[in-house]
Amino acid sequence: MATAASVVVAVGTVTGLVNALDQGGGTDEARPRVTTSPSLQPLPAVPSASPSTTSASPSPSKSSAKPSPKAKATTKAPTTSAAAAPAVSTRLYRHNDSQVLEWVRANRSDPRRPLIESRIADQPAAVWFADYTPATITSRVRAVTSRAAGSGQVPVVVPYAIPQRDCGGASQGGAPDFDAYDAWIDKFAAGLGAGEVIVILEPDSLAQIDCLSAGDKARRYASLARAGRVLKAADSRVRVYYDAGHSDWNPAATQAARLRQAGAASAASSDGIFTNVSNFHRTTQEAAYARQVLSALGGPSSLGAVIDTSRNGNGAPADGEWCDPAGRKLGQAPTLRTGQARIDAYLWVKLPGESDGCKGAPGTFTPDYAYDLVTGG
Question: Which residues are annotated as catalytic?
C-alpha cells in the first residue's frame, strides 16, 4: 500500500502546498523552482523533476504498477454554479506565491476561475522544502515563517530531503547522506523563528522504510528522532508530526513500532503523527486509524494527529488508482478545530490541482484537474 508524496516541484510557495526548493540562487525568496513530486506506490515520497518553474506538491500511489500518463483533459466550461465556498481558516497561513495563484492571476476570464479561486486558491496549504541546497534553506524557511508570524497565522511546512527519499522512485532525491541531512535540518530549524509553526516531517519516510538496509534503517530512525528534537529546541511553539502513512498501508501496530524508533513517542521530539498525505482516504477512516496508531505508540496523552484532507471528499478509488484518479473531490477545508479527540487538525498538505503525472506534468498545476476536484467530476 502506498500513501504519498509524489512528484514534488521545488521551492514553491503554495496556496496549497508548495515545495520550497532552495536551489542555491542566493535569494531569500521562497519561490519554487522545478523538481518533481513523489508518487504513491508503496508510498513513495520522492519528487521527480518537473518542467515548470512554479511550485508543485506530492502525489499518492497505491499499486506497484504505475499507469502511463493520460492525455491532458481539454478545457471545459463549468456546468455548475458556484456554491458558497467553505469558510477559510483565519488561523492557518496561506502562502501568497503558488502555482494555483499564478494561474488565477493570469486567467481572470477563464470560466473555471471563480470556483478554482474560491475553493482552492483561497485556502491555506502546506509549503514544501523538497530540494537539498543547504546554502539557502534557512532564508527560505524564514521567508515563510516570518510572513506568517507577521499576519498572526500558523504556517504548515514540509521538510522533504531525507536520504534515499522514495526509495529511488519517482520522487527520489534528498540529502546525499545522513550527516548532510542532519546539518540541513539544523539550517531548516534556524529559519523557524519564534512563532507557531506546524512541521510535517518527511512524508513516506517511515511508511516506506522497508526498502532500506538494516544499517540505513537505523540511521534514518536516528536522524528523524534527532530532527524532531532539533526543530522543537529551535522554536518552543513548533509542532512536529511524524509519518504514519495512511489507513490502507501498514497495520497500526507496525507503523507505531516504526514511529517509536524514530522518536515519535517522545514529547521532546514529537507532537504526534500525520496521515493520508497526498492520498484520498476518507477523514473518518483516517481518524480511526490515527487513534489506533497513537494507542499502539504510547507516549504522552498530548500526542495527536493531523490528516491531509485536500483530496479525500469522495474517498479513495475502489481500484486503487493513485495517479490523478477520476471522481475525486476536495475534502474538508483546513482547520485547527476538528472537534475530534486526538485529531489536532485537518490540513491541505498536498495542493489540490497539482497533478500526479497523468492529467498534467508531474507536480504542476493543472486547471482541468483542479476543476474536477472542485466539482467532483
Answer: 166, 204, 356
